[in-house]
Design a protein that fits this description.
4-stranded mixed beta sheet, alpha+beta
């Protein structure tokens, strides 16, 4: 989709997603060009590799959804009180032809940061504390902080944490975004479609 078409849809709301796609074009290209597995992943490592690849490909829509889910435009303090949680289910029948749909969104919600940290093992505690320190530094510098995004696949006991830094640099993009009350359906539909953001033409 061209940037002009994207603007016609709703450029204010697509700007974060489009720009994040553009910023991460190299990583997305690498993830797309990884040789796909010839068989359905079965081992924990194979499933983890497929999940990491999916996260890299779907990162733009994941980040956009986290902003709307937490309503950061009006409640930036939720960077310090809540985490955005996405629950996935596998869709490995499409893994070879469509790595972007190798997992589908089953549910998405917000959870208090306190209960999220409490549910995690002690091995993550130092990393969590370091992220909170970085988040406070970003806030002190004029940004919002770090958005914590948890991505879980319960059927395989797999989980990943994706921190997104809402720094001062992205404030202009956030300031003109209107809240999308249908963010959850938009996330599910975009992932199911196999689209990778809406990158503007360069």
């Amino acid at each position: 989709m061209s940037s002009r078409e994207c603007q016609k849809l709703d450029w204010d709301n697509h700007k974060i997603q489009c720009n994040e796609t553009g910023r991460r074009a190299e990583e997305i290209s690498r993830a797309l060009n990884v040789d796909p597995p010839t068989t359905v992943p079965t081992t924990a490592r194979e499933i983890n590799d497929a999940l990491v690849r999916w996260i890299e490909l779907q990162r733009p829509i994941i980040i956009l959804s986290s902003i709307h889910a937490l309503r950061l435009q009006s409640t930036p303090e939720r960077c310090f009180s809540d985490v955005f949680v996405i629950t996935l289910k596998s869709n490995f029948s499409n893994l070879v032809n469509s790595p972007t749909t190798s997992f589908l969104v089953e549910y998405a919600h917000t959870q208090s940061l306190e209960s999220f940290f409490g549910d995690r093992s002690s091995s993550y505690r130092l990393m969590d504390e370091q992220l909170l320190v970085q988040s406070r530094d970003i806030r002190a510098d004029g940004g919002f902080g770090i958005v914590m995004i948890a991505i879980n696949v319960p059927q395989f006991s797999q989980s990943h944490t994706l921190p997104f830094a809402c720094t001062k640099a992205v404030m202009p993009e956030l300031s003109c975004m209107k809240w999308n009350s249908h963010w959850k359906q938009h996330l599910m539909d975009t992932v199911a479609s196999g689209l990778i953001g809406l990158a503007p033409d360069v």
